[in-house]
Amino acid sequence: MTLAPAALKDWRKATRERLIAARVAIDPTQLEAWRRRIDGHLELAFPGLARSRLAFCWPIKGEYDARHFARTLRERGALTALPVVVAPRQPLVFREWHPGVRLAHGALDIPYPVDSPEVQPDAVLLPMNGWDPQGYRLGYGAGFFDRTLASLAKRPVTIGVSYELARLDTIQPQAWDIPMDYVVTERGVYRRDPEGLAYLGEPQRGEPSALASPVCYADLVKRDPD
């Protein structure tokens, strides 16, 4: 059922709050176990990230904490970056970040790099408050990432990271919503195909990955035609 704009806004707000509350209520030990599983899935399924420019998000409210995985990638030669809000309703920029880069605090008290070089990422790890079988993401409602991805001449591969408990039947996507290319949860890896998300399973060590492109996986993603 399609909701009117006002009703959709209210539904998304209520759904977002419910999912965040459920996530925050999870025992930290369980969140840490899921974080380690997701790290492992990302490492095995996306080996090319070790030679990429990867943007990720500073975790808040029990989100998957990508900082551990980002550290592992930097040790293998990757460059990591964080998003920076330039102005309301404007695309984000990404600035290089590693320990030692000066941070300030912005909206929702999220840290961001102040004066490091801008980065054009090959891939982005995006936390998701909710997600659906078509690969659409429920964020925080400001639309920054959809606006940013739509503005880039070369779109990075988007990997949504979340938990299975955040799966919805639909997020009621609108024309401006951009689906993820992949979704990774504690269960395993999903890839977006024309029919929606296809579950690829749990990556196994020692098995060749279909996603072993050296830097970027754009050629492996079946995107919608322009």
- Count every helix, treating DSSP H or I runs of 4 or more residues as helices: 4
* Oligomeric state of the chains in view: single chain
Q: What is the third-level CATH name, the topology?
A: Rossmann fold
Helix percent reads 10-25%
From the alpha-carbon coordinates, what is the Rg to the nearest angstrom? 17 Å
Number of strands: 12
Widest sheet, order of strands: 3-2-1-6-9-10-11-12
**Portion in beta strands:** 15-25%
Give, in order, the helices and strands: HHEHEEEEEEEHEEEE
Structural features, described:
The strands form three sheets. Strands 3-2-1-6-9-10-11-12 form an eight-stranded mixed beta sheet. The two termini are 26 Å apart. It has 226 residues and is α/β, with parallel strands linked by helices. 24% of the residues lie in helices and 21% in strands. It has a single domain (5-220), classed as Rossmann fold, CATH 3.40.50.10420. The protein has helices at residues 5-24, 28-45, 67-75, 144-151, and strands spanning 53-55, 79-84, 93-96, 103-105, 111-113, 123-127, 130-131, 137-138, 157-161, 182-184, 189-193, 196-201. The chain has four helices and twelve strands; from the N terminus they run ααβαβββββββαββββ.
